[in-house]
């Protein structure tokens, strides 16, 4: 009697919490005993962070009823983090969007109308009308302009959570179909600085090492990465090495003490932005103490320097940009070792200690570690380096240290940027959905690259615009300024995740000249700010492929149908292309070059082009004879994903940039992912190293073949101050970030009742003294204001993040507390990635 | 009371309905008003009074505590904080002034229930009467005080219907409704005023407190009494009326501790025999020696029907 | 109404009246005594608080004592800013009218100013408790290690993350995961010297039925027998050995060997010296060794 009562109360409590979060719980009442009967299991990679854990998904009666960590997956060996544990619940929130919703008044689209359900036909009709008008205007504006100067009024904000196929189809639709390079992924907020630095130093994107480094290193150094919370399963591997390997050391550097410090043998708190100086100090120490690996440096490294005083990526009229000598400049200048050595000289232990607040002993300990030729070291970083107004610089300074010591491209040695999203590498970077990129490390600026792309895509010569499109932050500004009028946001929640929401983003979305489309699964802040919402299929509701941080490409099959009229983003992009005739999007001179495309739709030209539609309709099965859905195949009549992938694969195999080879489509369904380059069916674990990398010629030992001279660049960059720092009015640093329990903006994880209960709201983490000074104590509601807005949240002084005095932290998962509206949209002028880590705020009782 | 008429019918005819229910209405207003003060907080967020009748805090300043509970705490071996002691002292002094069982008639929510049972009992002419001594309440009071001594805890509070219901109304009833229904049926079917008049140890406690109280009802115009018996019919503690009303040697002031000062006798008397006075008042109109109350058989009769 | 007391004495009444009175009084006494006994038994049962019900901070760990001090006024409930506390209603398994909370539903947020305790007029919530960290409402127990996913190596740690006595009441014991071979386990361990029993961990546990639960101290705690002490703890507490340390030891040892009394025991200066290597560095020595193969 008591027991049943208790159970009742608990169920009731959970249901109440769930109701608060807007959730129904599928199967809460169903019997547990026979749950495993008749479940079909198949592998799907986790759709959260960049770790790339494999999950077995259990389908029964058209629903995902359970998941389990894939015990045969090399990354996670059956394990998951707490978010991965709840993957089966993310698709079943009660407020799932299931039909297109258009803002209407009196039966017609109206910017100031309320959302009403509409058919896909009506949605695409209204959308196509807007797109055609904007494209027409663009074509008029582009008349007579060379292809290198073409601009467009249509744009797209995509995602590192797109599948490879989606990214590829979207990129093709925009860059070739609409002739717009205004397509950028949310990976711009995430990995752009790492990309920029990889390209500048090595001529090729993505890390040289792989997760096996986690077992091979003697020491780990974390630079602005809270792996403990944000790469939970990798952290578990790193921890295991620390526990089981003798003399293994863990060094953690950050601007505040977070959970990764729990394992740290050496925890270092430095003042924001001074990581630039600390890395130069380490390089200086290595040079001064003759710890340079001369064999390596002489053979494989060039010394260069980068232009300085480059501004902060703000609007050109901003005083900081006006004051900058070389705004946005990044062209490298070759120097010799002596010049490099001289440039490092000011970065003495004393000077850097003073600047960074780190003790001389601590600095020396770090420097000695890197200088010790016997220690194998992996340096990991995530957003601390990347979301940085000098992100490309600081990434580069990290490479400098590894290149000076030759600790790179071998088991246990190397710099390793960890991605935050499941396919930031696989889709955003490798497929090239950035405003400046094409697939497989090709870029729009190089004619040779565009030519190759046009040839593969069977486009008239000169179709692809050569001018870099609007990047993420610029898109917001152009929307606000009315220069970008049609905007499609897919698989991200930028109105919550993006910077300076109040001043730059929201005004652009609600600009009456603009039409904003958001493809979403849940009513997020972005969806609320849109004009048209398109309901999407999530994760296992579609066939997909992701690429994780260690270059591992993983595929999955469609497990279940999406609810209602939800369609995959891929379906949406390809289906929308049917609405455009080539004459409506391409100018006459382009059509004249290839008259046979006249009268055809973009669908015909881009997707039914003989390559993408090469694989006829078939039943998708696994090796055990289970059959799977393929909604896109049913609808379009051919195996769309396979066709897109095989067309894309050619870029890596035969493109101008070598070393991006992928295996055939079918190979990935037979493995838990393969790490590219995959040549003759063999994966590559460590790039640029003879024996491990098939592209390194015999006898070379090492070849950084992304660069024409096979040498990597050491790039000197100095310390420069951040765009904004605390002052009298706004006297605290604020940094934003993530927590273990929630994924990014919480649109999925907050709809899992258990995760909601475990961390329902964002808190402001403060030093107790800072709180006390402001008349606040733990649990009080505080107001946090920057020059751009204010939010309120409860104060936490003894939580998971121990803040130094003068600094606060707020995670950005909570849609009720849009912390990113406090953030200045200052970016690294080179990578255009926003600095979400250095905001000046004041905090007071609410 | 004329055969077939309800008690008070004459008074209604003479004084009008409102005047014939004056104290009843005041009492209900007070009972509900006090309860309402407690409910302002949980219902509307106006926290004038917090807690319940066991102990409360008014305007974050005035503590009031049930002295019987404090007595039980002492028995349990717990010395309460000054706040509770002061609260109990205030309550004690107040009831010493106005009459202990004013608590029963003017505050206790159970009173409404038992009054309703009694009303219905009269209406339905239910005559069942269990033999219950009104002294049982003193035995029970003794048990209430001794139980904490034996068990270490305030055992009576596990079942005390008065605090249970009051608390229930403010904090959530649970199954305390069954207690309300039980008491109602008990009073309706088992015996007239069976709970309040015979068993309730809180009534016993406050009755003892009321022995010396200042505020009293007096049959100042007992000369006018026409023996209609309406006051007896409505009185919850009938034994308290007779000496003052009918015994010329007795002061007209009702001095019995168990008089609840409910004023119902004043209401139902068409001849305004009763009124509120102090215990020291000796006033009678006209002077007692002028008109001797004539003998009436009712005085010798058993009061029970 | 009541014949015994209000009817006039009958003709041969005095004795009879007295007898009636005695009988009546006896009857009352027996009835009340019986009722009181039943109530006392009921109280014994009510003293056993159900394991899921937790008393507010400052309540005596012995619920019987608490129930002797609490007058069921609900002022603590009123001053609880998080609606954590509730008064037991009739029918609840907790003594009716007394304050409690259920961690899984709404746990204690451990307010620094302990408003519930301040509201208590009787001291049933002991005003001697000044720091909420010293409250001992119960003790969190990781009650089901089979269900807790941390024991399987999953990265959960929600209990650890929400614990307000951070890093003291719950710590993570990091161990090698022998099953995966490559990962670590992050095992939550509760420490009774710091756990207040606030129940945040139980509330946040993401399992369908919490694997970590706050239990009354009486249920949760074991106790070492009074006849035994843990020597190393006693020594650490005292800061010195309880019994005077030995005078220096001396041993009969071959040359090159030493003996460390308190530490490593037998130590050989160099393993090479202690035992001849199986093979000489000169291969000829081996090859020409006498005594055959």
Structural class of chain C: alpha+beta
Output the strand order for the largest sheet of chain C: 1-3-2
Number of strands of chain C: 9
Measured between the Cα atoms of the first and last residue of chain A, the distance is: 46 Å
The chain-level mean pLDDT of chain A equals: 94
Taken in chain order, the helices and strands of chain C follow as HHEHHEEHEHEEHEHHEEHH
Runs of chain C in which pLDDT lies below 50 for 5 or more consecutive residues are 1-5
The biggest chain-chain interface is: B-C, 68 and 56 residues
Strand content of chain A: 15-25%
Total helical elements of chain C: 11
- Give the beta-strand count of chain A: 32
* Classification by helices and strands of chain A: alpha/beta
- Give the count of helical stretches of chain A: 31
Which sheet architecture does the biggest sheet of chain C show?
Answer: 3 strands, antiparallel
Compute the separation of the termini of chain C in Å.
122 Å
Question: Percent of residues of chain C in beta strands?
Answer: 5-15%
- Unreliable residue stretches of chain A: 1-35
Q: Largest sheet of chain A, described in full?
A: 8 strands, mixed
Sum up the overall morphology of chain C in one term.
elongated
Please write out the topology.
The complex is a heterotrimer of chains A (846), B (305) and C (293).
Chain A: H1 2-21, E1 40-45, E2 54-60, E3 63-69, H2 82-85, E4 101-105, E5 108-109, E6 114-117, H3 120-142, E7 154-158, H4 164-177, E8 183-185, H5 192-202, H6 213-216, E9 219-223, H7 227-230, H8 232-244, E10 249-254, E11 266-269, H9 275-288, H10 294-300, E12 301-305, H11 319-323, E13 333-335, H12 337-344, H13 349-356, H14 360-371, E14 377-381, H15 383-386, H16 391-405, E15 414-417, H17 424-432, E16 437-438, E17 442-443, H18 447-456, H19 472-481, E18 486-490, H20 494-497, H21 501-509, E19 515-520, H22 525-528, E20 532-535, E21 544-547, E22 552-556, H23 569-577, H24 582-585, H25 588-593, H26 602-607, E23 620-621, E24 627-628, H27 631-636, H28 640-654, H29 665-669, E25 674-675, E26 712-716, E27 732-737, H30 753-758, E28 763-765, H31 768-773, E29 781-786, E30 789-796, E31 807-811, E32 839-845
Parallel strand pairs in A: 7-8, 7-18, 9-10, 9-14, 10-11, 12-26, 14-15, 18-19, 19-20, 27-31, 28-30
Antiparallel strand pairs in A: 1-2, 2-3, 4-5, 4-6, 4-20, 12-13, 16-17, 21-22, 22-25, 23-24, 27-32, 29-30, 29-32
Helix pairs in contact in A: 4-17, 4-23, 4-28, 5-16, 9-13, 9-14, 9-16, 19-21
Chain B: H1 9-15, H2 22-44, E1 49-52, E2 55-58, E3 62-65, H3 67-76, H4 82-98, H5 102-107, H6 110-124, H7 136-151, H8 161-171, H9 177-190, H10 194-199, H11 201-210, E4 215-218, H12 230-234, H13 242-246, H14 264-268, E5 275-278
Antiparallel strand pairs in B: 1-2, 2-3, 4-5
Chain C: H1 3-6, H2 13-47, E1 53-54, H3 63-69, H4 75-79, E2 86-87, E3 99-102, H5 115-119, E4 139-142, H6 158-162, E5 170-176, E6 184-190, H7 200-204, E7 212-215, H8 217-220, H9 231-238, E8 257-260, E9 265-268, H10 271-274, H11 283-287
Antiparallel strand pairs in C: 1-3, 2-3, 4-7, 5-6, 8-9
